[in-house]
Amino acid sequence: MDIINWQWTLIIVSSLLLFLLSPLAKTTDEFFKAVHKKKAPNSLVLTGSLIISWIFAKSITNAANLGLDFGIVGGVAYAGYYVSFAVAGLLIYKMRVVGGFKSIHQFLTTKFGKGAMALFSILIAIRLFNEVWSNTMVIGSYFGETGSSNYYWAIIVFTILTLAYAIKGGLSSSIFTDVIQMVLFGILLMVILWNIFSIETFSVTDVVTSGTWSFELGLNLFFAAIIQSFSYPFHDPVLTDRAFISSPKVTRKSFLWASLLGAICIILFSVIGVYAQTQGFKGQAAVEVGKAFGVVILLVINFIMITSAASTLDSTFSSFSKLLAIDLGMVNDLTFGRASMAAIAILGTLPVFLEAEILSATTISGTMVIGLTPIFLFWNIKVPKISFYLSVITGLVFGFTLVFNVFPEALIFTEGKYADLLWVNIWGILSCNILYFIPKWLKSNK
Fold first, then answer.
1. Which has fewest Cβ within 10 Å: 26, 134, 254, 280?
2. Which of 58, 54, 104 is nearest to 84 (CA)?
3. In this structure, what are the phi and psi dihedrals at residue 2, rounded to the nearest 5 degrees?
4. Which regions span the lipid bilayer (predicted)?
């Protein structure tokens, strides 16, 4: 039985098992709020769900590749994004306890009006749309060359199977399967690391001494990730939806643990790339290491990709249906919720066939939303409604300067890869914060 057949077996069997085990949502609370037997998820379940829904196929591929490029510094740099959980956990705790808000959309509508909420909803809908194809394309790449029939079939089958169990239980399914996927991820990661460290020529010392702690070799990305962590979590409904389903204290505890444990998972996964670097491998680090260790380890790596992509995909489907049904108040019923999941699955898969240039699922969209920083960081400070638009639009403008590579080089003060990313974010954050407060200063000085 060749490797491709084994991979098909993994996808089909694991998805069918998740479908059979998933709870069937019979009420809107079960479907949209993950209430099970009238109870919200506890801190252990919520922590596991947060971590695995963020360790998506794209991110662990990036972590391994950054380990290959920059050594352990690359893994630590990428793990910087996990500060997002701590930021979101602490700020949303305050918004719920002090402000009494029950969702991000309620907060935005109350403070900045319906127009602001609509603009925000467009941003997160684009985010969810990107999330679908950026994860399924990683799965497709394990089955064949981009554009081959195997590649396309893997994407279609994987998306349909994940959609099936997501439609069955909504957010309840998503959180329930997340726990299984988190346990699987942990076991599979340990298997890979055990095999890597059992080689005599590779040790923990090699990992610790790999890479150089300089801006050129990874720290540009690290600081950019830290800066983005103050806005990034708020444009990701997969994360924020989970911040309102359990009690404030359980939520805060879960988010803080997820910040620490998620970062550790990413750093450990980047060790695969560090190993690839010591062996002089080129290309996709995870794939090359898998091939070097033979069929079993390649399948284990493959299975990690499948579980992590599935957990992100089902979360994306449930967040999109909640966005339309609850947050935008379209139709609060199960049929509409399930239909909207199918819609985002189809729309999100279309770019795969259009051969759209893959925009990085994290860094670029992360820059475009830096305008959200003052809105959430200073959520309790009264400002005119125009402040929201000034900050968000400024963030988008800085994001586009990065995409089109038109940011002035005179304003970049470090060298190497990701230097432009870092400095666009530094200047962008400063500009967004200043423009956010200018209307307030003008008003108070009248």
1. 280
2. 54
3. -80, 170
4. 6-24, 44-64, 70-92, 112-130, 150-167, 179-197, 217-234, 255-276, 292-313, 334-353, 359-379, 386-407, 419-438
pLDDT in tens, 42-71: 999 999 999 998 887 778 899 999 999 999
Comparing C-alpha atoms, which of 95, 94, 122, 87 is closest to residue 327?
A: 122
- For helices 114-141 and 295-322, angle between their N-to-C axes, nearest 10 degrees: 160
Q: Tell me the C-alpha to C-alpha distance, in Å, between residue 56 and each of 171, 312, 313.
A: 17, 6, 9
**Of residues 352, 330, 338, the one with CA closest to residue 133:** 352
C-alpha 248/C-alpha 231 separation (Å) is: 20
Distance of CA 349 to the CA centre of its chain: 18
The token pair that represents 333 in the structure block: 């019923």
Q: Give yes or no for a contact between 186 and 311, defined as CB atoms under 8 angstroms apart.
A: no
Question: Using one digit for the tens of pLDDT, what is the confidence trace for 388-407?
Answer: 999 999 999 999 998 888 99
The pair of structure tokens assigned to 89 is 């956990």
Helices 3-21 and 149-197 sit at what angle, rounded to 10 degrees?
Answer: 90
Report the b/e string of 50-68 with b at 16+ CB within 10 A.
bbbbbbbbbbbbbbbbbbb
Domains of the chain (ranges; CATH) run: 3-353 (1.20.1730.10)
CB-CB contact of 83 with 225 (8 Å): yes
pLDDT digits (tens, 9 = 90+) for 116-129: 999 999 999 888 88
Do residues 336 and 330 lie in contact, with contact meaning Cβ atoms separated by under 8 Å?
Answer: yes
Q: What angle do CA 72, 145, 69 make, to 5 degrees?
A: 15
Q: Which residues contact 171 (CB under 8 A, 6 or more apart)?
A: 31, 32, 33, 34, 241, 245, 318, 322
Amino acid 359: pLDDT: 46
Which of 15-29, 344-358, 361-375, 424-438: highest mean pLDDT? Answer: 424-438
Please give the single-letter amino acid code of residue 362.
T
Count CB-CB contacts under 10 A for residue 33. 21
Matching residue, tokens 């994004």: 81
| Backbone Cα Rg of the chain | 21
Q: Which are the contacts of 212, defined by CB distance < 8 A and separation ≥ 6?
A: 71, 73, 218
Cβ atoms of 82 and 270 closer than 8 Å? no
SS3 of 80-124: the string is HHHHHHHHHHHHHHHHHHCCCCCCHHHHHHHHHCHHHHHHHHHHH
Tell me the whole-structure pTM to 2 decimals. 0.93
Query: Most distant CA pair in the chain: distance in Å?
Result: 78
Distance between CA 231 and CA 367 in Å, rounded? 9
Contacts of 56 (CB under 8 A, 6+ apart): 131, 135, 308, 309, 311, 312, 361
